[in-house]
Amino acid sequence: MSTFLGLIEELPGISVDSFEGKNLDSSVFFLSHCHADHMNGLNISFFESLEKYNKYLYCSPISKIILLNKFSLKEKCNIKEIYMDTPIIIEYEIKRGDNHVISVLSIPAGHCPGSVMFLFEKHTILILYTGDFRINPEDLPKLRSLHVKQGLRLLPKKLNRIYLDTTFLNPHFSYLPSRKESVIKIYQMTNEWLDQDPRNVVMLECSALFGSEFLYMELSKSLNKKIHVKDYLYDIYHNIAELAPHITNDSNSTPIHACTNKSARSLKCRYDVNKENILIIVPSVLKWQGKDTTKIAEWDEHREKTYNVCYSMHSSLNELKAFIQYFDPIDVFPCVCPRDQEQQIYDILNEIMNKSSNQTLKNKPKYKLRLPCYKISNVTTKNVYFSDDDSC
């Protein structure tokens, strides 16, 4: 859960992934992806205020599709699309006569549909905001927008600060299986269960509304069967070319269902299915805290016919170390920093930064417990968007 309040210290006048309180005074807004903890304050009133004050929200094309559906917005609203690896120049005014110009790039984040990182450049300041992300460390050199050409070589850009997704900056999650490895386990169990009895069905108990799309696509391809999803998600997904062939709103056309609420024990869309014919598969990470994540999957100790699979949309501790040490920024700001974990997070950041080879220790910031931006959330509200993030 993000604790970042949305205000980037080096770039006054913009807000990222927070749309309430002081953020409403900002002149420009950015949304990295459509998960509830990054959408606080996004409502009809917010979009009306954008039009009233001639302000704009920038996001990926897929995020715009989701927003248009979620809030029943007209196509010509004050949402502007940022296309991958295509720089745009934004001019804005904080107050009369106080003009600012920034360059912005969006970069694939490998988290959920439309998820992007933002690279902000203003004069000599270069800031990377990752949002939520998961990228295979082997793919870091392929992120061309985060590199500069020097002769025949591409070198990482010199970042002043990374605002980093530190969800799993935690020794309990040093290693996490790649999503491809996790999907293979889910495929094997699903295939075995469906082969046992033609009446059998599988329920995918996914933890978030969005984020399991890579799983849906790969499982659908492997089994040659579509995934039944909620009507609300179908209305969005059928507009996304990569996803549309793999999902359905016809509950009787497939034995694979991702249409139920978490912890449901029956299929409300299929009253003809008996309880003994239902296998529940839970793709999750939190169930694996303190366990051996290299095991990838195991049967639940307390719930009958429930198969838990370690499945992560966020970078592991080792992947975060590789990311920080590869780009070697001057500073890192943790965007997920719960109060009971702040000392541990800052200690780990100190250790990672001090092991970097490209800067002398005297230039490294010491991570004191400077109060990060906290927020209390009321959670009411091979394609560039779908990374398979194979781990090293």
TrEMBL record:
Residues 242-337 form the DNA repair metallo-beta-lactamase domain. The keyword Nucleus applies. The keyword Nucleus applies. This is Protein artemis. GO terms for molecular function: 5'-3' DNA exonuclease activity; damaged DNA binding; endonuclease activity. Keywords: DNA damage, DNA recombination, DNA repair, Endonuclease, Exonuclease, Hydrolase, Nuclease, Nucleus. It is found in: Nucleus. It comes from the Eukaryota. It holds the Pfam family DRMBL. Belongs to the DNA repair metallo-beta-lactamase (DRMBL) family. GO terms for cellular component: nucleus. InterPro entries: DRMBL, RibonucZ/Hydroxyglut_hydro. GO terms for biological process: DNA recombination; double-strand break repair via nonhomologous end joining; interstrand cross-link repair; telomere maintenance.
